[in-house]
Design brief:
The chain is built from two helices and three strands, in the order E-E-E-H-H. It is an alpha+beta fold and about 90 residues long.
Length: about 90
């Protein structure tokens, strides 16, 4: 881990695109200003961990649950649910 000392209003650059500025220091708390491209998500670590946990849980959803949800949504929208039969394959 790289440890840097900075004072209020001083900045740290990460690469060419991410700029971290010390905005305020009060007691044992430091306020940071982070300027990064919108394509790079910036989160507090506890929020990042919660997002990862939810993504992992979502990735473990059974395919049958997704199909059931799809049929419920289609029925609610007044659409005819698809049957599970596959279309015949036509070979040329």
């Amino acid at each position: 881990m790289l440890v840097l000392s900075r004072q209020k209003d001083q900045t740290i650059m990460i690469g060419d695109l991410i700029e971290i500025t010390i905005v305020d220091i009060r007691g044992d708390k430091v306020r940071l200003g982070i300027n990064a491209p919108t394509a790079i998500p910036v989160h507090r670590k506890e929020v990042y961990e919660a997002i990862r946990s939810e993504n992992r849980a979502a990735a473990n959803v059974a395919v049958s649950d997704v199909a059931l949800l799809e049929s419920i949504v289609k029925e609610a929208a007044g659409l005819k649910p698809q049957t599970t039969e596959k279309s015949p394959v036509i070979k040329a």
